[in-house]
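Pasting as-is:
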Amino acid sequence: MKITPFGLKLRALREEKRLGLRELASMAEISPAFLSKIESGKEKPPAEGKLRALAKVLDCDPDVLMALAGRLPDDVVKVIQRHPKQYVALLRALRNLSVEQLEQVRGLSVQMWKMEIPPMPPEKMRELVKSFKKGTLQHRRTIQVTEPAKVKFAKDSLRERQESERR
């Protein structure tokens, strides 16, 4: 087997932190021989739990390390499994966007979720896409606090959703 991009990145992160192979292996609770084989491409990347342990020790984003390993976090797999056709289509549609555009889309989706915006008719969605293309899309939706009880309810709903997703 040849050295993989994952193995190279893992070695680079380890060396950047000035950790020896045995030291990293011990801190991440994996065998030094296994870590050596991963870095040299003789072994496939480990499972999610070990990847997260490595990310923690190396002080890097576990999702980035998982992606480099060609894996998806379990929570992401569960999200995709809820509506596989739609999520796969969405990912394919987003593949050519810049990082800035992806952040805008993410921001919009968070706002839609927080404000419990219902599905839009096609003409409204076309307007939204046009404003997005023109760069006039606002990141945050303005809330008129004429009915404080509704705002409190939305915040409580958000908190409840977040707690249920953590479980």
